[in-house]
Structure formats: structure tokens, C-alpha cells
Amino acid sequence: MNQHIAPSVKIGTEVKLGFNVVIMDGVEIGDYVSIANNVIIYENSRIGTYTRIDDNTIIGKKPLSSPRSIFKPPAELKPTVIGDACQIGTNVVIYAQAIIGERNLIADLATIREDVNIGDLNIIGRNVTIENFVSIGSRNKFETNCYITAYSTVEDYCFVAPCVATSNDNYMARDKERFNHFKGITIKSGGRIGVHATILPGKTIEEDGTVAAGAVVTRDVPAAQIVVGSPAKPLRDVPEAQLLKNNLDKQ
Question: Are 70 and 35 in contact (CB under 8 A)?
Fold first, then answer.
């Protein structure tokens, strides 16, 4: 097979490697891992047991930095860590200094930037982008084409529908004052966002807060309330049957 496996790589038992796989120095791969064709794994990355990585995926990519970039990546980036029993689709890019827990599904074309920390049992859908400096808990669902901006926090059991957009810059790249105010969004446990909703910088969706499809969130969303419209305003309480505490056994 046409492969490049650095001499310092540690590979566990029953690991399957496809064609044109490149694995750089210091990588550690656990037992029963499946790595498909044209995969590149950069230096010192760690892959947990029973993990599957599909064709053309890149693990441990180093970020680019334009002369105009506001924040520069550190010279020394920590390695990517991927936990046990993850499923990583085709054409996924996971950057250096990302830490991903166990049993996560990361679907085709997803991008996970540096300095992202992800818990366990999340579903990260097709073409989802998770920018840098984002913290994600466990058992969340991010559906196709949604965008999680940098400096955001998502707790547990949250739902983000397709094509949701989030932002972190109220100054839209003008005025140096913006450097003092960059802030992503916060979704607290059980928060839900409907399809094509937009969440403006620094806004918090409290526990069980629910954003209707197409809404534009310009203020924090109260706990267990449904907000609708542009700008989004409270409509009614989340029905008791839909509260997270009444659905934990279904998650």
C-alpha cells in the first residue's frame, strides 16, 4: 500500500489502514481503529480505541493566520485528542489543539477549529462549522450547515437546527473598540434553536430556552420560554412535556 507511517507512530492491535494514509511523528492510535483512504494525521495526535475515520479527513491541522488576523495562533499547539468510539466522516477537518470526547459522531464536511473542547455523545452534522475557543458539553445535536462562532459555550442536551447562524462581533470588523467586546453565544442545558435562526453576539439562551425558526435573537432568551420573531420576543412557556427534566430518558 502507498502509505507514510512515521517510525515513532504507535499503532494498536487490529487497526485498519486504507490507501494513501499519512501518519506523522508521535501519533498514537488505539486498538480496533479504522482509518480509510487519503487520511492525514498530524504530529502527536491521539486517536482512541474503536474510532472510525473516513476518506480524505485531516486530523491535527495547524491553523492559518493572515497578516490582518486579530488573534494569532500560538507557536506551539497542543496535539489533537480524539476519544474512544468516535465516528468521523469524509472530508472532515479537525485542527490541532482540539479535544474531542468519546462516542461523538462528526459527519461529512464538518470543520472543528483549534482550541475547541467537546464532551461525549454529541452529534455534529454535515458541514457544521465549530470555530475556535468553543466549549461544548455532552449529548448535543448540531444539525446540517449550522455555524457556531468563536468564543461560544454550549452546555448539555442542546439542539441546534440546520442553518442556524451565530456571531461574536457587534462592531462588524470596524472600530478598535470591538477588540474589548468579542463574545460568542451561550446555550445553557436544554436550550434549543430552530432552523435558520440567528443569534447575535454575547446572547445567552437560558436552560430550556427555545428559539423559533427564523427568529433573530437580540436579547437573552429566558429559561423555559419560547421566543419568536425579529427581534425575538417571548411567546409562551415551553410546554411541561418538552422540558429537559421530563425527557432525560429519551436523550
Answer: no
